[in-house]
Amino acid sequence: MKFRRVSALDCYAVAFGLFLFVSPWLFAYVSEKVRIEVWAAGAAVAAISIAAVVAFSEWEEWVNLLLGAWLVISPWVIGFVHTRAMHVSILIGGMIAFLAALELWITHYEPDYGSEHAEAQGTKVSPVGPPH
User: Fold this and answer.
1) If phi over 0 gives left and psi between -120 and 50 gives alpha, with beta otherwise, what is residue 129?
2) Cα–Cα dist 62/79, whole Å
3) Using CA atoms, how far apart are residues 81 and 87, in angstroms rounded to an integer?
4) Closest Cα to residue 47, out of 10, 98, 9?
5) What is the signed CA dihedral for 7, 12, 16, 18, rounded to 10 degrees?
6) What is the pLDDT of residues 1-10, one digit of tens each?
7) Which region, left, alpha or beta, applies to residue 30 given φ > 0 means left and ψ of -120 to 50 means alpha?
8) What is the pLDDT of residue 107?
9) Distances, alpha carbon 48 to alpha carbons 23, 31, 38, in Å
10) Is pTM, for the whole model, over 0.70?
11) Is residue 111 over pLDDT 90?
12) Strands (E), 6-118
């Protein structure tokens, strides 16, 4: 297992997923469908994020991005607006979507650190990012 610099973002996503997983018990959600939805989404986010830490693949971040977006819109789709569960779902879903989008962006557009320093010394630096 090769450690990637952005694996820390996946570790945060695991923590958010585990928080979602236990939130039905922490906040005593009344609705059965809300408990199941938040519990399942939390388990999915945690499992996918653990898989991304172990063996990164881009599809894992896309799935987390979609799960985060689902958590943001699910209060209106499922019908649990104006509840504590809505606030938890929107907040954690937004954070999961942000982390997934940030990791996708960092993966595709990694900056070329040190090129200014190398050019000042007269050495050639090969680009790290995607070909243009």
Assistant:
1) beta
2) 25
3) 9
4) 10
5) 70
6) 555 667 888 8
7) alpha
8) 84
9) 18, 26, 15
10) yes
11) no
12) none
| Segment (H or E) for 42 | helix 32-54
What's the pLDDT tens digit per position in 22-72? 999 999 888 899 999 999 999 999 999 999 888 888 899 999 999 999 999
Q: How far apart are CA 81 and CA 70, in angstroms?
A: 14
- Asked if residue 65 lies in contact with residue 104, where contact means CB atoms within 8 angstroms, the answer is yes
| Packing angle of the helix pair 7-26, 32-54 (nearest 10 deg) | 160
Q: Tokens representing 126?
A: 């090969």
End-to-end CA distance of the chain: 30
What token pair was written down for 33? 């469908």
The Cα–Cα gap between 48 and 98 comes to 15
Read off the tokens for 21.
């997983």
Whether the CB-CB separation of 74 and 66 falls below 8 Å is answered with no
Domain locations in the chain as residue ranges: 7-107
